[in-house]
Specification:
single chain; 4-stranded antiparallel β-sheet; 37% helix; 12% strand
């Protein structure tokens, strides 16, 4: 085989796509057929009745989720985005409040504040876990801070003990976005259960899925009730149910999960431990195989934590290799390895924040907090990771075997052997 990098005319390490991650099997098919045979595809009713809480599969999924994650309440929703919105509403966030959020995550984690007229305030991330920290959150606190949304990005739990201490000190509600980290642990406790509310995703490209869907968990019965009301037309229900709690934000939505989704999700939940274990084994294998390569810093797992490995992140130093990150990336892709540079552009650089336009033409809700800045340079660690250092790959999932991982490792080693030649390639 020609050892030259494929980018320079050599033979690629792999010329066919890697195996696709598939978690749906006979169990899910059988569960769906049972729902179809029942004739009940959804059993939610937007009025006070036994069906206000949904059908049998929805309730069974919520019970299973509580048991699996050792949490008191689980509220199913039609997406993790809906779950984030409901959690912000349940926290009592309102116009002019500030919600501290991560700039390095899916956009809904920040946009959830806007739904209730609050203003997102972006805190920087830790350069090893890529999560918010108590220190970066503290730096962004103000008298108007109402809540914090902390994302377990890439599958690594944030350091929640000091974050929750800070929240208690300042009377803040903390929402954990655990979309990418189901099955990870923080000092023996499940990711997603580390804050006042935790949000899980069942979107099709997550570790487990039912196409679309999500769950919000909490140990607080009052928050659980508010989540259920926001999920299902709370304004139409509170009178007849005799609800005596706070009415703020109970203008309800239709965030309801179907019986088919719930049936699939129940079967998927049973597979979660083994799917996460395979990802952890694959990550350990990649770490051993990539150790010592020039310009690469392997992902770190904080003491007391386990990682869910939604993706496999690496830090790259062009200063060490003399090869531009874009060239290094192009060389890996030419070898057939699926990899990307950066993750998402820091959210505050989106037009929404740069122009401070969300609802109407009067800059609401940003007009309520005009001093909040979204200038470039706001979160320097995030910008350095995105624009200069981060590489990440989805080639970590449970359908990859040792042979495929060996090809990934071989591609990196091949590029490392030919850094001198790659230095002449324009980025």
């Amino acid at each position: 085989m020609n050892d030259l990098p494929a980018l320079l005319g050599g033979t690629p390490v792999r010329s066919t796509p890697f195996p696709v991650y598939r978690t749906i099997g006979a169990e899910e098919k059988q569960a769906v057929m049972e729902v179809l045979d029942s004739g009940v595809l959804s059993q939610f009713l937007g009025a006070w009745s036994p069906d206000f809480f949904g059908g049998p599969r929805v309730r069974e999924l919520e019970a299973d989720w509580c048991q699996h994650f050792s949490v008191a309440h689980a509220v199913s929703v039609n997406s993790a985005t809906s779950g984030l919105y409901a959690a912000v509403g349940a926290a009592g966030v309102g116009p002019g409040d500030e919600v501290i959020v991560s700039p390095y995550t899916m956009s809904a984690s920040a946009a959830a504040a806007l739904v209730y007229g609050a203003v997102p305030v972006f805190a920087d991330i830790d350069p090893e876990t890529y999560c918010l920290t108590a220190e970066t959150i503290r730096a962004k606190l103000s008298a108007r801070t109402k809540a914090v949304i902390v994302v377990d990005i890439f599958g690594h739990p944030a350091d929640f003990a000091p974050i929750m201490e800070l929240a208690h000190e300042h009377g803040l509600t903390v929402i954990e976005d655990c979309a990418q980290a189901p099955g990870a642990l923080y000092h023996g406790k499940a990711a997603g259960t580390l804050a006042h509310m935790g949000v899980y995703s069942l979107n099709y490209h997550k570790t487990i899925h039912c196409g679309e869907g999500g769950l919000v968990v909490t140990d607080d019965p009052a928050l659980a009730k508010r989540l259920q009301l926001i999920r299902n037309h709370g304004e139409a229900v509170v009178k007849n149910m005799g609800y005596q709690g706070e009415l703020t934000n109970l203008v309800g939505f239709n965030y309801r999960m179907t019986e088919i989704e719930a049936a699939i999700a129940r079967e998927q939940l049973k597979k979660l431990p083994q799917l996460v274990a395979r990802r952890q084994e694959n990550a350990a294998y990649l770490n051993r195989g990539l150790q010592g390569l020039r310009g690469l810093s392997l992902p770190q797992v904080a003491p007391g934590c386990t990682h869910g490995w939604y993706v496999y992140p690496l830090k790259y130093s062009a200063a060490v290799t003399g090869v531009a990150r874009a060239t290094y990336l192009a060389a890996l892709r030419a070898e057939g390895v699926e990899i990307a540079a950066g993750y998402v552009e820091p959210l505050y650089l989106q037009p929404l924040y740069q122009q401070k336009i969300a609802y109407g033409n009067e800059h609401f809700p940003f007009s309520l907090r005009p001093e909040v800045s979204y200038a470039r340079g706001l979160c320097p660690v995030t910008e350095r990771m995105h624009f200069d250092e981060l590489l990440y790959s989805p080639l970590i999932h449970a359908d990859l075997g040792q042979a495929e991982l060996d090809q990934v490792i071989a591609a990196f080693h091949k590029i490392d052997r030919h850094l001198d030649a790659l230095r002449s390639v324009a980025a």
